[in-house]
What does this fold into?
Amino acid sequence: MAAESQDCILCRRSCLDGKQGLYVRGCHICRDCEEKIISIAIDDPIYQIYIKKLKKIWSQAG
Ligand SMILES: [Zn+2]
It folds into this structure.
């Protein structure tokens, strides 16, 4: 299973063409999650969860 996942790394829904928001280091983030990240309050616990997941991706790639 080395193939790139087409699933959103945050909500695990599949990101089909057109629904993809961001593409970071081989990982997809769907439009819904992209908008959430942009609009969410920094002190919202969900924001922290998202950031944690994003950091994982960034630290993993090399
Ligand atoms: Zn998503």
In short: The chain has a mean pLDDT of 79.
